[in-house]
Write a structure and sequence with these properties.
The structure is a single chain. The chain has 305 residues and is an all-alpha fold. The chain folds into two domains: 22-40 and 49-72 and 81-221, no CATH class; 238-303, Orthogonal Bundle (Arc Repressor Mutant, subunit A), CATH 1.10.10.10. It has 13 helices and no strands. The chain has helices at 22-44, 51-72, 82-107, 119-141, 144-170, 178-194, 196-202, 207-237, 243-246, 251-262, 266-273, 277-290, 296-303. Helix 3 packs antiparallel against helix 4 (119-141), helix 5 runs antiparallel to helix 6 and helix 11 packs across helix 12 (277-290). The longest helix is centred in the last third of the chain and has 31 residues, at 207-237. The termini are far apart.
């Protein structure tokens, strides 16, 4: 028997290794299925020019690469220095985050006047930061913890600042109808999810925690896509003809066309969709050209059943 005074303390600890955690493997399988379904949708769709489908496909591929590379690397059994493996994993993470931000800009029709948050400038800043605060220090010191801590300070600051900026930019969305409220909350939560990446990485590489939390951003965007599709399907169903498919309207043009047929004014549509009055008029003009009508009155008369 062990002496009564002898005690054992167990401290749970996760040790990061190159083997992929089962949670990350499951995520990869789910994203792979989504990619296959999206490819089938694009291949068998008659609307080959829908850019939104390709944007979502690229986003899914980037999140899949992020999970695969960060799940399998670093791996000492692979040829070459670990230095290159870390550059690869960090690079795909940066590309994924920037692309997600651009994706949401397109989704919410955001044209930022702030030069700091323009996609081009964000890309340049993060690239230079990665080069001078991670790659070069890591190459000369061979210290991952030092280089990572040095590099991630700026991305953490940028992430928090961007979350505040994004919220302030689309805060009016929550005042709109239910569909747009849902899209707004999903967009904000996806941004919150992805900005956890630099914050969590600062404290270490905890694969089963960091990757699922970050990948949650992709699944939130997927819910946005499903919600958008349901909205279009519901509103198109009330018409006698699927004019969006018939005249190759874009997703946004289809939404605007439906609201025009319902009798909504351009001003109301701009509030509903959180876009400017001029943008609505521009989309409406494209809708009229595609449907071979001259004006709003002719368009409503042609399609209102």
């Amino acid at each position: 028997m062990l002496p009564k005074e002898q005690k054992y303390h167990f401290t749970p600890e996760y040790v990061y290794s190159s083997s992929m955690h089962w949670i990350v493997l499951f995520i990869c399988i789910v994203i792979s299925i989504i990619i296959v379904l999206q490819l089938l949708k694009i291949i068998f769709s008659k609307q080959k020019t829908i850019k939104a489908s390709y944007r979502y496909l690229i986003l899914a591929i980037l999140f899949l690469l992020y999970n695969i590379l960060n799940g399998l690397l670093p791996n000492t059994s692979l040829p070459g220095p670990l230095f290159l493996q870390y550059i690869t994993t960090y690079s795909i993470s940066i590309i994924m985050c920037i692309y997600l931000i651009w994706y949401l800009y397109i989704e919410f029709n955001i044209i930022t006047p702030n030069p700091f948050f323009k996609i081009k400038n964000l890309t340049i800043i993060l690239t230079l930061c990665f080069l001078f605060l991670f790659i070069i220090p890591y190459y000369y010191t061979n210290s991952l913890s030092f280089s990572r801590s040095l590099f991630l300070v700026l991305p953490i600051f940028m992430s928090i600042t961007f979350l505040i900026y994004f919220f302030m930019t689309i805060r009016k969305e929550v005042k709109r109808q239910r569909y747009f409220k849902i899209q707004t909350y999903l967009g904000l939560t996806s941004i919150l999810s992805v900005i956890l990446l630099p914050l969590l990485t600062y404290f270490g590489d905890f694969q089963p925690i960091t990757q699922p939390l970050v990948t949650m951003a992709f699944f939130l965007v997927t819910i946005m896509e499903i919600n958008s599709y349901s909205y279009r399907l519901k509103n198109t169903y009330i018409l006698k003809r699927n004019i969006g498919k018939e005249y190759s309207f874009t997703n946004r043009e289809n939404e605007i066309a439906i609201q025009i047929i319902k009798g909504d004014s351009y001003k109301k549509i701009s509030k509903n969709m959180f876009i400017s009055y001029g943008t609505v008029r521009k989309h409406a003009s494209n809708i009229f050209i595609k449907s071979n009508v001259s004006n709003k009155e002719d368009f409503v008369k042609k399609f209102k059943g």
